[in-house]
Amino acid sequence: MRFHSFLSIFVLTAVTATSAVAEGELNLYSSRHYDTDERLYTDFEAQTGITINRIEAKAGALMERMRAEGKNSPADVLLTVDAGNLWRATEAGLFQPVESDILNARIPENLRSPDGSWYAFSQRARMIFYAKDRVENPPQTYEALADPQYEGMVCARSSSNIYMQSLLASIIAHAGTEAATEWTQGFHDNLARKPQGGDTDQLRGLISGECDIALANSYYFARALRKPVKGLSNAIDGIGWVFPNQSDRGAHVNISGGGVAAHAPNRENAIRFLEYLAGDAAQAYFSAGNDEFPVVEGSDISAEAASLGAFEADALNVSELGQHRKEAQMVYDRVGYP
Ligand code: FE
Fold this sequence. Notes:
Helices cover about 45% and strands about 15% of the residues. It is built from 14 helices and nine strands. Strands 1, 2, 3, 4, 5, 6, 7, 8 and 9 form a nine-stranded mixed beta sheet that branches.
């Protein structure tokens, strides 16, 4: 007990000393495409006196830029969406592993890179949505999307989309390539139309009548509950939803996350920023701003995201999604899924 209080005092002193010298800059490369993230940044600046310089672009462009900049890259933190992208950045040597007791304590083990290269700060479930008036027995699992009873009913994005690659990567991780190939064939046979558009377009298809069943990330639906989304919010009551695989492995979740850049000139600020993103306030912002689910248990969830209900998430380490991403693309190609 005495030892413990000694430690607390020590930690407290260390933190005070750090905050006195931590003012400065943080160069953030971000591919998060949500304008609602603004508060995340202004709050950090106000709390720490550290100025955030932001460069926003698509994940691929940011990674290419960091690669080209090499050792001279000003990037301190790379934030992006999808474990597949985080995996690609790790493979390209764009991150450096960091150790943080705060990050390790707050972020579940399956939602961070095993070596500390990156951490998840929010998560989203890939869900099955359906037209209530046309689908009596909606599929309860991803596997069921390949069931012939749903022939000509399913809408989904193209295989070049990383959400689709990660979903198939999770099936490969759980069932192996052969079973995943069979699934992809059946899933392809059930398509209502050639894969096209973004997640919101899959949901719109349920209302236009082009699709009876659609795959989309949870936050696209929650957003349409919160504010008007053209061609969706007006008739959203007609859409039902399923968190898939609740009686076995849980729903496939993906993440948004980030890590400290390999050559970060402001490494300490970068770690501090990541720790801030794992804090209570930032966790609540992620959910309030973009209707994602927090990664830290007990964090506030937006009313719209919460209205989808509680669910079991797949406990697979999300880094496995990256590991199987290329293979997933090969399976889609082999089957001829566009
Ligand atoms: Fe998205």
